[in-house]
Amino acid sequence: MADPSGPGHLAEVGGRSADIDALLGTASGPVVIRKLADDWPLVHAGRKGGRAARDYLLRHARSTSFTANYGLPGVADRLFYTDDMAMNFRVENKPLEAIFNDIEAGESVPDPPFIYLSSIDIADAFEGLAENTALDLGGRVASQRIWIGNRTRIAAHNDIPDNLAVCAVGRRIFTIFPPEQIANLYLGPIEHNPAGRPVSMVDFKAPDFPRFPRFEEALRSAFRVELEPGDAIHVPSMWYHHVESLDPFNVLINYWWKQAPRWLGDPELALFHAMLALRDLPHDARMRWQMMFDHYVFSGGADAAAHVPDGKRGILDPLNPASAQLIRTRILRGLS
Description:
Layout: E1 11-14, H1 20-26, E2 31-34, H2 41-47, H3 50-60, E3 65-71, E4 78-79, E5 89-95, H4 96-106, E6 115-121, H5 122-125, H6 129-132, E7 143-149, E8 152-157, E9 162-169, E10 172-177, H7 215-220, E11 223-227, E12 232-235, E13 240-245, E14 250-257, H8 267-279, H9 283-298, H10 302-305, H11 321-335
Parallel strand pairs: 1-2, 4-8
Antiparallel strand pairs: 2-12, 3-5, 3-6, 6-7, 7-14, 8-13, 9-12, 9-14, 10-11, 10-13
């Protein structure tokens, strides 16, 4: 992979006694927490080898089918598109033991196609595992997920929630980019992608710089860090990250949470609606609407409301559940 020089090393703290709540509240960018999960039984099992880690997970797995992505023949470790922009994997639903047998069989094959189980709700799929991998995140309401597979490369993408990702089994390399690098990462389709998020079209292992020249600028802003089992990384909301799993068997457990109240709208839906309503208007019309958005939305809206008497500002005031519902009702009426 191209070696990004980056702006420097990521901030790092160490130890299982790290105050995660305080750390997440003060960090201005990504931060690595070394040895955070050293005492997890899953981490201990993984240090004995892939089979021990799989046996541990099987002891906790519920009797249900698991969904796994299987790389197509000739595909090695990169979850991505085919040349005609189809997915380069098939999806299978099997008992977890059968999937693990497939992973173990691939360990004797050079460069086996990837097998990848992504974003599995731990409480739904496992008994007792959530309790054995719990972290104190303060008052944050987090979704806890598990990601399992052999050697894989996940193309650079961002997530809307904040993310605390714990490397439980195997080693992982995270390459992280700030949100302002969006144009330099050459993202693919929004609505048609390998895992629900637009991904960089650049192959990080062999970047095609003539085709993606601005990627060199992105690399100058990149952070690259290798995580050992038990290490964790906080990836803030909307920071882009490329993730490479290095070992024949790998497990990551992550926590997602949103900082905004649940009654606020979804910004990504606003993006889709803006594409529908604004993007293809004539240039002059788009510029007029841009001024409206800057005035009412991206400025924070204080100047738009200051001259209106108190109690008469309606949705120009900071939103609350009741005023948010008024906006939601109006949007739904307009869409219908």
